[in-house]
């Protein structure tokens, strides 16, 4: 039966004192449940930012050069020099880059023939493992080790020779 204003009056059944809705209304409720769930979750899903890499940002070296990390590369800016995004074209076609975790022993082993450097790494690396960004460019490579949120070391390697550099976050 229609009421003025175009609204239909819903007549329900009462079973054991609990009002029940007509079958036509009950059949549409499961769809409403899914829509309500989507509407409830959507703002949370859209409002949650992507986790940011702990390497994100600009890092400064002792000689006033800067390094910035991106998803798939490293951008270097020497003091007073041009900005260079490392990639296959800037690394003679031999480029690799990725994020990982490495244990302390594997990081110390990056300087196998240099006891002084190994002892320095032993003093710097006190935790069992670290987040790293590994860059291979041409014949050489660099492993960036995140010591904490403000300090980073770069272990540079070229053949059997290694060196380290300390960087801090801007």
Shape: globular
Strand content: 35-45%
Structural class: alpha+beta
Measured between the Cα atoms of the first and last residue, the distance is 72 Å
Low-confidence stretches: 5-10
Give the H and E element order: EEHEEEEEHHEEEE
Number of strands: 11
Task: Supply database-style keywords.
2 domains; alpha+beta; nine-stranded antiparallel beta sheet; about 35% strand; two-stranded antiparallel ribbon; about 170 residues
What would your notes on this structure say?
- The chain has 170 residues and is of the alpha+beta class.
- It folds into two domains: 13-47; 58-169, no CATH class.
- Helix content is 24%, strand content 36%.
- The protein is built from three helices and eleven strands.
- A hairpin with a 2-residue loop joins strand 8 and strand 9.
- The protein starts with 12 loop residues before the first strand and ends with a strand.
